[in-house]
Amino acid sequence: MSFQALPVEARPAGTTSRILFLAIAVLSLAGAIVSSVSLERHYAKSATSFCDLSEKFNCDIVNRSEQSEVMGIPVAAIGVVGYAMLFIFSTFYRSRAETPFRLLIAATAGLVFALYLTYVEAYVLMTWCVLCLTSLAMIFLISVLAGLVRLRAAKTL
Hints:
Structural class: mainly alpha
Strand order of the largest sheet: 1-2
CATH architecture: Up-down Bundle
CATH superfamily: VKOR domain
Order of helices and strands: HHEEHHH
Distance between the termini: 27 Å
Number of helices: 5
């Protein structure tokens, strides 16, 4: 039986949650890939042609700046780990009662960190990284979806 033609409120309760968890998993996987590319560029010695669009849009300037590490750990590595956690929560642990809350907390923490890094790009480096902006969009969407998962979980309690 296909639920695509049914309005959301007519679908079985778990179907929408499964779709939300699947969307979070896909976005988390994509985020981990983007962060992995960014991490590779952090350590690379050569210039990045696909991300060097202008003086104002240059991933290499951002990824190799002094602000690209926190206590010696590359920000991109933190991103890979964070997205991996979100992927694990949205797949392997999705049936646990505490997962919606943990997913929302992890996604919100990631969003706050990404917004801080966006501030650094805008006001400290004055250069934008396309990979970083892509990651920001993904963690924003994940946060919204995690909020929806949490709201749905609260309604069933």
